Amino acid sequence: MKRFAIAALVLGLVVSPAVAKEHRGGGSHPTGHMSRPSAHMGHRPTMRTGTRRPVAAHHRSFHASSHRAAHRRPTYRHARRSAHHAARHHEMRHAVRHAEHKALHRYAKVRRSIRARHRFHAGVYRRPHGWYAHHWVIGERLPRAWFARDYWLTDWAIYGLWAPIDGLIWVRVGPDAMLIDPATGEVVAVDYGLFF
After folding, report:
1. How far apart are alpha carbons 45 and 41 in whole angstroms?
2. Statement: the pTM of the whole predicted model exceeds 0.85
3. Cα separation of 110 and 161, whole Å?
4. Which residues contact residue 136 at a Cβ distance below 8 angstroms, ignoring those fewer than 6 apart?
5. How far apart are CA 15 and CA 180, in angstroms?
6. pLDDT by residue (tens digit) across 111-132?
7. What residue ranges do the domains of the chain occupy?
8. Are 136 and 142 in contact (CB under 8 A)?
């Protein structure tokens, strides 16, 4: 009887540390390894069941879509920039209209288009680069290459043309003589068919 009691006591002392170790998660049972994640697996995203994406990937996509939506929303800075551009565009249009209105009144006395009564031979007309046939009228703008120095009519009085004013110049464009503003190329007056 005494031997049986000693054997039971020894067996209890041997078994109790193993049971306590198993309850703490250090046993050799497979669930012991899964009860707490290891240090090298702590950074991996946990997977949801089914066919859905990982939690971390879903969080990134949600953050990216929120970021794009925030960029699409109009901001105070964007509104101020749009208002500034609109005001600048309005000022530029007003300045151009004012300049055109002023030029219209400035050239009012010399604006005329006539058909030449006498025709002159002033040599062969060498067409400028990009030349094309066109019936030019008052208010249109000549391309810059068409009123280069070679096409100026400095001896305008010989051809019966009136004196240019306010810095205007006479130029030859094919068979016609045109009074233009050299700053803009605007046609102020035309004498059609002056040359042959």
Report:
1. 9
2. no
3. 11
4. 142, 173, 176, 178, 187, 190
5. 115
6. 888 998 899 998 899 999 899 9
7. 61-106, 112-192
8. yes
